């Protein structure tokens, strides 16, 4: 397990999650605070589950998210554990038909 790396955009220090609350099964609202005392920036943030990358082995039929397209899968491959990168500005972009060269190809259900 790795912790989510949150960086203060002002002073580039780490931020801590002061508290968080669930708003929806896919959405959690968090209140963050910069760990540098002299900065002390505090902010509201949202963590949202947006796309399914791999199906659950214990699926709940009421849990439905759109499957990630090729571009999102490539982004997931680039986001190696342990790396700390700012979210891509292309977040949320969903294109189809570009998965041909991706090693982690989508597994389509034959049901
Ligand atoms: Zn700061």
Protein architecture, described:
With 111 residues, this protein is mainly beta. 8% of the residues lie in helices and 23% in strands. The protein has one helix and three strands. The chain has one helix at residues 70-78, and strands at 15-24, 27-34, 42-48. It has a three-stranded antiparallel β-sheet with strand order 1-2-3, with no helix packed on it. A hairpin with a 2-residue loop joins strand 1 (15-24) and strand 2 (27-34). The longest helix has 9 residues, at 70-78. The radius of gyration is 17 Å and the shape is flat. The two termini are 33 Å apart. The relative contact order is 0.16. The site of zinc ion has 8 residues, from loops.
What labels would you give this structure?
single chain, 111 residues, mainly beta, three-stranded antiparallel sheet, 1 helix, 3 strands, 23% strand, binds zinc ion
Look at the helices and sheets and give the structural class: mainly beta
Strand fraction band? Answer: 15-25%
Radius of gyration from CA coordinates: 17 Å
The arrangement of helices and strands along the chain is EEEH
Number of helices: 1
N-to-C span = 33 Å
Bound molecules: zinc ion
Protein name: Transcriptional regulator
Region (Disordered): 76-111
Pfam families: Ogr_Delta (PF04606)
Domain Zinc finger Ogr/Delta-type: 8-53
At a glance:
With 111 residues, the protein is mainly beta. The protein contains 1 helix and 3 strands.
């Amino acid at each position: 397990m790795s912790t989510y790396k949150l960086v203060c955009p002002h002073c580039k220090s780490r931020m801590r999650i002061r508290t968080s609350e669930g708003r929806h099964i896919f959405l959690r609202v968090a209140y963050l605070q910069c760990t540098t005392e002299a900065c002390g920036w505090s902010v509201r943030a949202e963590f949202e589950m947006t796309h399914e990358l791999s199906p659950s082995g214990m699926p709940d039929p009421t849990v439905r998210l759109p499957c990630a397209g090729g571009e999102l899968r490539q982004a997931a491959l680039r986001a190696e554990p342990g790396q700390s990168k700012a979210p891509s500005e292309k977040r949320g972009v969903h294109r189809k038909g570009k998965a041909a060269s991706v090693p982690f190809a989508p597994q389509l259900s034959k049901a």
